[in-house]
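FORM 12-B: Structure-to-Sequence Request
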């Protein structure tokens, strides 16, 4: 799943809330709000899949270096998919 970086999504949420979305949401452009919600959903799904994958790894504390590298790669890819490629 490809989504904007978490920092960008958080900035967009802050912008929405700071420009009237908190007190007067009907002033916001509906297309922008829809796009923000879609990006939030995609980002949350990606993070959730990564957390589920990490939780499924047995004997994580005894992982070999190759497993540790894969875990780090998955976490980086989830946090910023535009700059990190995930090797699956």
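FORM 12-B RESPONSE
SEQUENCE OUT:
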């Amino acid at each position: 799943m490809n989504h904007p970086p978490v920092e960008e999504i958080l900035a967009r949420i802050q912008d929405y809330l700071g420009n009237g979305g908190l007190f007067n949401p009907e002033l916001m452009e509906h297309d922008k709000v829809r796009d923000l919600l879609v990006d939030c959903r995609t980002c949350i799904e990606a993070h959730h899949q990564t957390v589920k994958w990490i939780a499924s790894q047995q004997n994580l504390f005894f992982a070999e270096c190759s497993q540790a590298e894969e875990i780090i790669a998955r976490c980086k890819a989830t946090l910023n998919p535009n700059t990190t490629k995930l090797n699956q």
